[in-house]
Amino acid sequence: MSPPALCLTARLGFRQTVQHGERNDPPGGCFRSGRYHRLLADDELGRSREDVSIPLNSNYVAAFHAIQADPHQLLVVAVHREHVVGTLQLSFIPGLSRLGSWRGQIEAVRITADHRRIGLGRNLVEWAIAQCRERGCQLVQLTTDKRRLDARRFYERLGFVATHEGYKLLL
Amino acid sequence: MSPPALCLTARLGFRQTVQHGERNDPPGGCFRSGRYHRLLADDELGRSREDVSIPLNSNYVAAFHAIQADPHQLLVVAVHREHVVGTLQLSFIPGLSRLGSWRGQIEAVRITADHRRIGLGRNLVEWAIAQCRERGCQLVQLTTDKRRLDARRFYERLGFVATHEGYKLLL
Fold this sequence. Notes:
The structure is a homodimer. By secondary structure, the first copy, chain A, is of the alpha+beta class. Chain A is built from 8 helices and 5 strands. At the A-B interface, helix 4, helix 5, strand 2, helix 6 and strand 3 of A face helix 4, helix 5, strand 2, helix 6 and strand 3 of B.
C-alpha cells in the first residue's frame, strides 16, 4: 500500500476549504457523510462515547459549525483515495503567562486502524507543530489518556515531555 | 483578615468589564499597571518565565488584546481591597468528539502567597466550572505541573481526576 498523501494545508482545514469555496471539499464531505465521526468511534475509548447513526446527530452538526466559525480552530483530515484515514484538531490559545505567549493545543488525533504504523500520525502532528511555529506559538500541548500506551510512546518520540498531570472533570 | 470577596461575574472578565465601558475596571487597571503579570511571576516556576518591568513588555499588551477580542476566552481576577489576589483563564473549545461537545479549559490559576488557604482558589475554580455548565460544556480540563504537589491535591479535592498525561513541547 502506498502511504496516503497528507492533504495540502490549503485543503486540510475545514475553514480554509470553505473559504476557498470548494463545493466538493473532502473534509466537509467526510463530515456530512458521517465518515469523520465514525473515525472518532473507531477506537476502544471512543466506541462508547460516539453516535454513528445517520442522519447525523445534530450535536455533531452544531459542533462542526462552531469549529468552522472560529478562526482559532483548525480541524484537519488526512485523505487517502477519497477516504478519511486520519484527523487532528488544533486550537490556538492566547494567554498572558510565559511573556504573553500563544500556545497550540492538539486534540482528537485519530488514525484508522488500517493506516497506523506508516508515519501518518507523525505527519499530522508535525504539520500541526509547523502551524504553531508559523503563528508564533511558544508551546504546543496535548493530553492523552494514560491507558493509551502506544500514544504516549508516539508523542515522546516526537519530543513531547510529560511534565504535567492532565485533569478532567466530567459535567 | 477578612476573606477577599470574589468579584461579581460581570466584573470578573476583562472582556465583560470592557464591554460595560467602565474606565476604572479593576481587571483592566490591574493589567495596565503590571500587577496582573507580577502575580504570574510570584511563583517558583513563573519567576524565571515572566518580565515584571515597567513599561509593560509589549508581548503582554498584545496578548491582553488577543484575549479581549476572543469571545471564547475569559480572563478573570479576584480583587481584595483594590489588589489583585487571584487570577484564572478559562477557554471554551468546541470539538467533534464526545458527541460534538464543548469543553472548558482552565489555565493560569494563580493566588498570591498571602491569600492562599482561605478558599479563594476553590471559589475561582468553582466559578469557572459553573460558567462551563452554563455554556453547556460536557467536560472541564486543565493540566498542572507534576512538581506542584499542592495544586494536584487541590484539584483532586475539587473532583478533577488525573486520567491523562499532560505533554508539552517548547518551540
